[in-house]
Design goal:
Blueprint: H1 5-32, H2 37-56, H3 67-85, H4 87-90, H5 98-109, H6 125-153, H7 172-200, H8 205-215, H9 234-247, H10 251-258, H11 263-266, H12 269-292, H13 297-312, H14 327-336, H15 352-370, E1 379-380, E2 383-384, H16 387-413, H17 418-430, H18 451-465, H19 469-472
Antiparallel strand pairs: 1-2
Helix pairs in contact: 1-2, 1-3, 1-6, 3-5, 3-6, 5-6, 5-18, 6-7, 6-8, 7-8, 7-9, 7-10, 9-13, 12-13, 16-17, 16-18, 17-18
């Protein structure tokens, strides 16, 4: 039976950690003199007070978090924490409505990058840092959730990435936590390296910090309305391409790569497919830009690589409004919305391994049609794939596409045009950020959408980030028994 108090206790500690971040931003505000230090101090006090209350209300109980409790905690946290991230957005100078503030906070925590804000270049630096920080901690949570919890929930074929444990009991949690801590160190290290590279290539220290905090979680929040288009340096674009790719690769693969063994044994099968797919897309689209849009080869490679990697990794940075390149570009980038990065990374989308699994299933089906009596085992990364795992992938893909269709219909009922409704649903569930069209495209934002649409999209962003089924599990009474 599910016990709610472990989730309340853990949520309390999460809120205390978030309050420490708010204190850090308050101190930053003092150094910049933008006058928002009291606002973030108040936010820290409220967050710490509620977090402390959660902890005190569970005192005297032995702490042991099982995976069912962890699932409940994760969904609870991803819907509750944006409420506290949103607090500074409710006050001056933003004065956002509660719906807009929650949307911005949910977009940050889920690393979606959709925004209702404009005039970013003139906003106080402490607010911009708070937005970036919300994406960075979201990215950390995503990695932990993907590594520790998802494989044991049998969601979308994630069993293939289950960690190796000495037994099958709940004693596996400490082992999982130790690996998650090691991955967190890699995450922090890559963030620091990204900051240094951005700064070295010409970004100011503040811009470099913010963009590093939003590149590694593949989030896409920027300090400028023009996003990465504000920076005219091709070197910066290529640096961003490298770090977006690094962030979209499985973080467990970094640990495996540092272990002894041959290169083939240490290489995750997703990584090769992911990089080859990106390379093919960039070459094809660059050729189209050269032949159809009169780009020179250098600019075509830079712009196509940056924007394709940004969308595929679900980062959502934009160097320019690629929708002005024509209908083919709009359809191309809409299709890329569904691809995603590798599992165990901060990227969203369907994930490369599910496309690999689908191609293997199709190939086996074609082979069995030609040779009906042949027995062809399905393998992934040297492992046999069970029918249960294949079914899990199929269920996830169905729910993923069904969610987009249902959300699109709901948005169209609210008056959104078909292109905006469909792309908004797809970009929210995939956690990409910019959509397609004049309203929510790379040059627009989500501020003009009705409040009901923003509420639906906020829920969709969290569902997409938590792989949909983990949220749906909470709707079944049997989950609590």
């Amino acid at each position: 039976m599910l016990k709610g108090w472990p989730a309340i206790l853990t949520l309390g500690w999460i809120l205390l950690a978030l309050s420490v971040g708010a204190v850090g931003v308050a101190l930053f505000s003092l150094t910049t003199g933008d006058g928002l230090a009291p606002l973030f101090a108040e936010d820290a006090a409220i967050t710490a007070g509620i977090g402390g209350t959660c902890i005190l209300s569970t005192m005297g109980r032995t702490f042991e978090l099982h995976f069912r409790d962890a699932t409940f905690l994760t969904v609870l946290a991803w819907f509750a924490v944006p409420c506290f991230i949103a607090l500074p957005y409710l006050a001056d100078p933003l004065d956002l409505s509660p719906v807009d503030a929650y949307f911005e906070a949910a977009s940050g925590l889920t690393t979606t990058g959709a925004t209702v804000l404009s005039g970013l270049d003139k906003l106080p630096h402490s607010l911009l840092l708070w937005r970036s920080f919300s994406q960075w901690i979201g990215g950390m949570g995503i990695i932990g959730f993907a590594i520790v919890i998802l494989p044991f929930l049998k969601i979308g074929g994630m069993q293939l990435f289950r960690l190796e444990f000495s037994d099958r009991s709940d004693k596996r949690m400490p082992r999982a936590r130790s690996i998650a801590m090691a991955v967190a160190e890699i995450y922090v290290g890559l963030t620091v390296l990204c900051f240094l590279v951005y700064n070295l290539l010409g970004m100011s220290a503040f811009d470099a910090l913010n963009h590093a905090l939003t590149t590694l979680p593949t989030g896409g929040f920027s300090t400028h309305d023009a996003s990465f288009g504000y920076f005219k340096s091709p070197a910066l674009r290529w640096a961003a391409v490298v770090f977006m790719l690094l962030a979209a690769m499985p973080f467990l693969a970094y640990l495996r790569f540092m272990q002894r063994g041959s290169l083939r044994e240490r290489m995750d099968p997703q990584v090769e497919a992911f990089l080859l797919t990106i390379a093919a897309m960039v070459v094809l689209f660059s050729a189209w830009l050269v032949t159809s849009r009169a780009f020179n080869v250098g600019d075509a490679l830079t712009e196509s690589a940056f924007n394709i990697v940004s969308v595929v990794t679900t980062t959502g940075f934009a160097s320019q409004d690629y929708l002005t390149w024509g209908t083919f570009a709009a359809v191309w980038f809409f299709a890329l919305t569904f691809v995603g990065g590798c599992t165990g990374s901060t990227a969203g989308g369907l994930k490369i391994f599910r496309f690999q699994m689908a191609s293997r299933v199709v190939a086996r089906h074609v082979g069995s049609s030609i040779h009906p009596h042949a027995v062809v085992p399905l393998r992934y990364g040297g492992r046999l794939v069970s029918d249960e795992q294949v079914g899990s992938v199929a269920v996830f893909v169905f729910l993923y596409l069904a969610s987009i269709v249902a959300i699109s219909i709901a948005l169209s009922i609210l008056g959104l045009d078909p292109r905006t409704a469909l792309s908004a649903a797809a970009t929210a569930v995939s956690n990409v950020g910019p959509g397609i069209g004049d309203v929510i495209g790379p040059a627009g934002n989500f501020s003009s959408l009705p409040d009901a649409a923003k509420i639906i999209l906020s829920i969709a962003m969290v569902m997409g980030r938590l792989e949909i089924l983990s949220v749906l599990l909470l709707l079944f009474p049997s989950f609590y028994r």
